[in-house]
Structures are given as C-alpha cells and as structure tokens.
Amino acid sequence: MCPCNSCWGRKPLVLKESANTLLLFGATGDLAQRMLLPSLYGLDLDGLLPPALRIVATARSDLDTEAFRTAAEGALKRFVDADYLKDEAVARFIARLSYVALDASDIAQYGRLAEAVGSTEKGLAIFLSTAPSLFKTTIAGLQRAGLAGDNVRLALEKPLGTDLASSRDINDAVAAVFPEERTFRIDHYLGKETVQNLLALRFGNALFEPLWNAGHIDHVQITVAETVGLEGRVGFYDGTGALRDMVQNHMLQLLALVAMEPPNQFSATEVRDEKVKVLRALRPIDASAVETNSVTGQYQAGAIGGSAVPAYAEELGQPSGTETFVALKAHVDNWRWKGVPFYLRTGKRLPQRQSMIVIQFKPVPHSIFASKGAALKANKLIINLQPQENIRLLTMAKQPGLDRDGIRLREVPLDLGMANAFADTRRRIAYERLLLDLIEGDPTLFVRRDEVEAQWEWIDAIRNGWAAKAMTPRPYAAGNWGPSAAIALTERDGVSWHE
Ligand SMILES: NC(=O)C1=CN([C@@H]2O[C@H](COP(=O)(O)OP(=O)(O)OC[C@H]3O[C@@H](n4cnc5c(N)ncnc54)[C@H](OP(=O)(O)O)[C@@H]3O)[C@@H](O)[C@H]2O)C=CC1
Ligand SMILES: O=C1O[C@H](COP(=O)(O)O)[C@@H](O)[C@H](O)[C@H]1O
C-alpha cells in the first residue's frame, strides 16, 4: 500500500517497472491457447513486450519446453489472423517460452517452478488461467516457493466465487499473500476497445455529459447476445447460469461505466472508486421485485442462421433448472439516475452475436414539425461492442427534396465509429490490453475487491429472490430473443428492445 499515511491506504502504490517474467498457469487450456498466447504474440509483434520478457508456462500435462513450444506455435496458427503471422515474429515469441509441468494442487512441486522463474527482483507477473478451486493451493505454493514477494503481481481469471461468501473466501486467501495493489482481477470486457472508448466518449467530449442524466435520458439498454451454446463447458455452465456467468461481471461493469460520475483522473483508484459507488447504488432486486423486474429462460430446440440447434437439456444430456437467458430491469438509486431504468439482457443461442449499449434520450419537449405531419424519433446513442465496434448517434435530419405539403424528416446515424477512423489499426484481442497492463503494473482496468463484492451482493439478492418465489426458467426456442416475458418486461414501460 501507499506509505504516505494520508490516503487511508486507498491509493495504490503503482509498480512502475515492467515485469521481466510472466508465469502463466493453465497454459495448455482453452483460454491460454485461444486468447492468451495469441494476445501475447500480438503484443510482441507490435514491439510492446519488454525485450527481455520471459514467459514461463505451466500446466499439468507432461510436456517439455520443446513440446510446449510446438503446441504454442500450433495455437498461434489456429487463432491468429494469417495476415499477422510473420515467421520472424513467431520465432522471436516462441523463443520467450519455457514450460514446467506441475500439479498445482501439490504444494511440494512449486520448488521446480521457482527454479524455472529464477529471481523475482526484476518483477514477476503471474496469471492464473485455471479453475478457482486451484487458487488457494496455488497461492500457498507460490508463497512457499518464494514467488509472492514485493515485486510479484497476481492476475486471476473469473469466476471469482459463486456468491458473495465464496468470493470473500477467495479474496481473503489472495489478500493473505498478495496485497490488493498487487492483485489484478480480470474482467476481459474491460479490455475491449469500445468499452474503453465509452469513457473517452463520455469524458473526452463536452457534448454528452450535460445530457447524461435522468433529465435527458429515458432509459439504458445493455444487451450481450450470443449464438453459441454450452461449447463443451458442461459442468461449469450448468453450475453457473447466465446471471452469474455474464451479469455478475461483464454486464455490471458495463453498467457501472455508463452510470459512473466523472473520476477526477483516469487512474486506478479514481475510476474504481466511481464504479463501486454505482454498484452500491443498485437497487436490490429481491424477493419482492424479482417477479416484475427479472425474467429467466432456457433454450429449447430451434434454429440459428438456418441451422438446427438442439435444446440446452439435450446438449447437457439431462434436464436442468439452469437459466441460459436473463433479462433484468435495474435502477441506480442516486440523483443522476433517478427513475431511469437500465434494462439488461444476455443469453445463449440468441439470433445473433451482438453486444451493445443503447442510450435512449428523451424526446424534444415540443415538436415544431407536428403540424406539418413530420414524426420525430428521440435520439439514441448506440454503442456496439461486438461483432462490429462502432458508436452511432441516431439523429433527425431533413429528407432532401421540395415537399409542397410540409417537411419530411428521417433518422440518420452520425457515425462516431472506430471502424473508419482507425481502419488501418489491427483489431486487438481484449486480453492484449489486460496482459500489457499486468506486465506493466497498471491496475486501472482490473476489478477491485470492493467492486466484485458489491456485484455479488446484488446478484445474491436476485438468486435468493428466485429461490423464494420458486421461479424457474421459461422456455424459448433457440434463435429467438429469449422468452416472450423478456419482451413484456420492457413493453410494460412502453419500451422496445433495440434490435
Ligand atoms: N475459456 C474461456 O473462454 C474462458 C475461461 N475462463 C476461466 O479461465 C479459467 C481457465 O479456463 P479454460 O482455459 O477454458 O480451462 P481448461 O479446462 O481448458 O484449461 C484448464 C487449464 O488448467 C490446467 N490445470 C487443470 N488442473 C490442474 C492442476 N491440478 N495443476 C495444474 N494445472 C492444472 C490444465 O492443464 P492440463 O490441461 O495440462 O491438465 C489447463 O491448462 C477457468 O477458470 C475459466 O472459467 C474465463 C473466461 C473465458
Ligand atoms: O466470460 C464469458 O464470456 C464469454 C463471452 O465473451 P465475449 O468476449 O465473446 O463476449 C461467454 O461466452 C462465456 O460464457 C463467459 O464465461
């Protein structure tokens, strides 16, 4: 912590030096192969990794360094766009890698890891891309092997618990060895370019902030729709469900970024202080509110893009009460957002992959065009996170022409998008930003303990409410936007989901 004795320990002591070793747990896993190794390669390609950085990979599989390097090269060939695979860059990256086979649950084996890592004096960044059930022993093993000292940072992948109690348990185990300023909790949505661009849009322009409140905004919609189903993560997903898999982390982070007050600077403490205030101001959706403010669903057999898709229970191999879809109507109880609903929805096997935030502004107070028969639509700001990354402001404009009987208006998008402005920039994987920040020691885009715990507190109330009201997921056919009750959730307020 900061030694200044005047900031109540809130100010992080930022470790300015880049780490010279990255220790990657779970290096043979899906996340490492699909995202982490390609991200590290991308950083290396662009000359962003410290020249001397070594990457020590570890997992249970009985491989040696040569075999791991071959597997890593295979992963790059599969998951990196061929345009960016340059022989020289691949060879340079692969040469950074070494591998140590280790059963992370056996604390006695960590000595071998310490040997491979060597001195931590010049900074060690550790990334746990393993199941959370391994976190406690891993942390104990690292400590015992001398891999947890002052120059060591620890990054943890989600899920950080399954409820507030288990999350506290993990956080306590981490905090016993790694102080908060050296703990980097990953939410990969914070690494997405458009998510960071949301902050630039809000706080880099004079235009939006004066309107960014209940006086001018009617409601906010946040949609994270996926076409994929279980993708082989049977045990994990069925024990988790959409609320805990997506809302607890990614969607609440998006909501917090939309709703937060301007931090006085773009730095870790200030940004996270503002986000946590929003999370704490979320009105609980408890047993008295779950039936009106939440809808859950589970996909049945259907079709997406013309291809037949089996039901969730069929993919799982047994009946289940787990929700694969959730829609919520949330409120942030503070002055800025008084009376403004935040509608959230996420689900698997929806018609298209689409993540977006829609800010629906209120209509103009009086239409001067009504007497001429022209209809006005209220402005809408649409922030597309994926698959397209762009920001559009829907505005009203005059339809060109000499209309004798009046004036015709139409809705036109003002494209504030990155697609055109940065057409020559390589689209980065979200983990590139996060891995670079971990290596360099900047925690701004990582989630602080109080944020995670505020998120869980809100989620636990919803789950307890569902249990108290014996709510079970409603069926929806794969390829639809969830059960019809999710449409009714907004239509009751005269609002339609933006599609
Ligand atoms: N995959 C994804 O898209 C996402 C994953 N996550 C989270 O990231 C973490 C990793 O996910 P993912 O890569 O998909 O999981 P996988 O099951 O594909 O990989 C798990 C990794 O952990 C290693 N491992 C398992 N048990 C041990 C052990 N006892 N000792 C040492 N290593 C062990 C495996 O090694 P080996 O194979 O050699 O046994 C493997 O490298 C999970 O917590 C997951 O929830 C979060 C967001 C997205
Ligand atoms: O964390 C998770 O995120 C993915 C969706 O990530 P995205 O970047 O592709 O939007 C989701 O599929 C997965 O279930 C969840 O665990």
Number of strands: 17
Strand proportion, as a percent range, falls in 15-25%
CATH architecture heading of the largest domain: 2-Layer Sandwich
CATH superfamily of the largest domain: Dihydrodipicolinate Reductase, domain 2
Low-confidence stretches: 1-15
Bound molecules: NADPH dihydro-nicotinamide-adenine-dinucleotide phosphate, the ligand O=C1O[C@H](COP(=O)(O)O)[C@@H](O)[C@H](O)[C@H]1O
Provide tags for this entry:
carbohydrate metabolism; Rossmann fold; 2 domains; Dihydrodipicolinate Reductase, domain 2; 499 residues; 17 strands; nine-stranded mixed beta sheet; binds NADPH dihydro-nicotinamide-adenine-dinucleotide phosphate; binds ligand LXAUTJHC; single chain; alpha/beta; 20% strand; six-stranded parallel beta sheet; disordered N terminus
Secondary-structure topology with pairs:
Blueprint: E1 21-25, H1 30-45, E2 54-59, H2 65-79, H3 87-95, E3 97-101, H4 110-117, E4 124-128, H5 135-144, E5 152-156, H6 164-175, E6 183-185, H7 193-203, E7 217-225, H8 234-238, H9 241-259, H10 268-281, H11 290-293, E8 294-300, E9 302-304, E10 307-309, H12 312-316, E11 325-330, E12 342-347, E13 354-361, E14 380-386, E15 390-398, E16 409-415, H13 418-421, H14 430-440, H15 449-468, E17 474-477, H16 484-491
Parallel strand pairs: 1-2, 1-4, 2-3, 4-5, 5-6, 7-12, 8-17
Antiparallel strand pairs: 7-13, 8-11, 9-10, 11-12, 13-14, 14-15, 15-16
Binding site for NADP(+): 60, 158
EC number: 1.1.1.49
Family: Belongs to the glucose-6-phosphate dehydrogenase family.
